[in-house]
Amino acid sequence: MWMFLPLVLALALQPDTANLVECEACRLTIKSLQEYYMESKHWKTITEIAVDICVDEGTYTRGVCQGAVQENALIAIDSVLKRLLDPEFLCKDMEFCNEPYYVKENFTEWVSQVMKSKPPTPRPVPTGRSNYVFAQMSDIHVDLYYKENTQTDCDMPVCCRNGTGTAGSWGDYNCDLPVKTFETALQQLQTLNPEFIIVTGDMPPHDIWNQSDSYNMAYQSLAAGLFKEYFPTTPVYAIFGNHACFPVNQFSYEIGAEKWLQDGFADNWGWWLDKEAIESLKTRGTYAMLHPGTNLRMVALNTQACNDQNFYLWVNNTDQGGQVAWLYEVLQQAEKNGEVVYMFGHYYLADDGCIKYWSYHINALIDRFENTIAGLFFGHSHSDSFHINRGVYSNAPTAVQFVTPSITTYTDKNPSFRLYTGDTDTKQVVDYQQYRLNLPNANKNPTVNPVYDLAYTFKQQYGVNDMLPSTMYGLVLEIANNENLALTYLANHETGVNPPTSCDTGCMHSLMCTLSYGVGDQTDNCQGPAPTWKNALFDLQFPPWTYKVKK
């Protein structure tokens, strides 16, 4: 085959000459192989088989299956080939080249270097002199094509668009959200007068087989426009989630690859960000800025770096975008300046779909800066939960990840938003109010704007005096030993929809594992050791961090 010609010619040269060219010849040969096999014609049959399998399962139509498979298949295939046919790695491994060198990160040493400068200062305790309130909304997933009285059970991932059925005026548990139901939430939140609002993704509906970059960005424009309409003078700190991407979940960290998303998101949501934050959002998909008039620094994370469904990470998952290094610098500067940090993103670190090596690095930074970080706020799950980060050496509680439930009803969720109370002096979260729409009741009155009820106040609901990490961990232990309390938590977790009626010892142990740890891998280990094959498969997909260096 012609692609082997450069290597053959190089090997035919005299040794002293060959040494000068065989490295580049090898790389050119491997690169040619990579490009040859990346041509889509070689994978047409495989993608067609994948579509047929999807259709044969009987859940979705051929159109849905074709859209979902074809949007993602070539990215997955390209990523595998770039990993397996990496010219620099293979030619060094086959000793045609002397460099680059591949150095596996010594995570233990990295943690040691990070932790050695941790100050002995205890975590600030709320003074109680004065408070402020701020809101969080997540997973909005509005659907411009939602129609009342359409089918709620269909052969597509998202229904309530066609046919004749029982889709309610304000929404349905099997569908994404009508715009007016989201707008009603904004109207009610406006009356609560939050000092600022955190928005942790996602805006587009779940019609992932029928999307494009412009389609997804239109939903960013819609949501951002409504926030701006109802909160023209209230800071809104937003970050994108996995559904902002096109295709869904797929986010490349190559420079400029996601310019359409990062620029578009910044243009839509940047009206309250300063110039430095906007530039950071456009270049790296993250940002940090001081909330005006305070020492509170808002830090937005791009959690696509830990999404295990992001095929681009198959090529390389080592600190993509340099985000861990960037966050370390941000937190160091915040500590030096006497600032307090709220950190927020879409994927929460305790999600088992958040790649463990990324999560462990962030968890170490949370431990190191536990006296600087006053709040962690996430979404993605559509459920109501919290999770305790633990110290890398002490295993003591260091922080609480607050995961707010979704505004969308998809699936089997009552639309929800959250109002936190913060201590003015320390910025510690001292309580929160969970607001929730009773969807069946709302649909009984299609012409009357529904009210999002105050579902519960955290401290009152769970009988705690504060929300410090140690107190929250104590609550977890109570939940693990009290079925009534466990059922209360599970009812809230499900936003009041079809809550379980019992929780035995196995159920309570599972809850303890889920809530006690801030890294998904730690939760899995608590549940019981994973099979060896599962760990091996994971490390094949997402190996321990390795850095490429030249000497």
Q: Which stretches of 5+ consecutive residues score pLDDT under 50?
A: 1-17
CATH fold name of the largest domain, please? Purple Acid Phosphatase, chain A, domain 2
Query: How does the overall form come out from the CA principal axes?
Result: globular
The SS-based structural class is alpha/beta
* Name of the CATH homologous superfamily of the largest domain: Metallo-dependent phosphatases
The number of E-state strands comes to 14
Strand % is 5-15%
Rounded to the nearest angstrom, the radius of gyration is: 25 Å
Helix content: 40-55%
Distance between the termini: 34 Å
Q: How is the main sheet built?
A: 6 strands, mixed
* Biggest sheet: strand arrangement: 4-3-2-11-12-13
Count of separate DSSP helical elements: 19
Classified by CATH, the class of the largest domain is Alpha Beta
Mean pLDDT score? 94
> How many domains would you count in the coordinates?
2
CATH architecture of the largest domain, please?
4-Layer Sandwich
For this entry, what is the oligomeric state of its chains? single chain
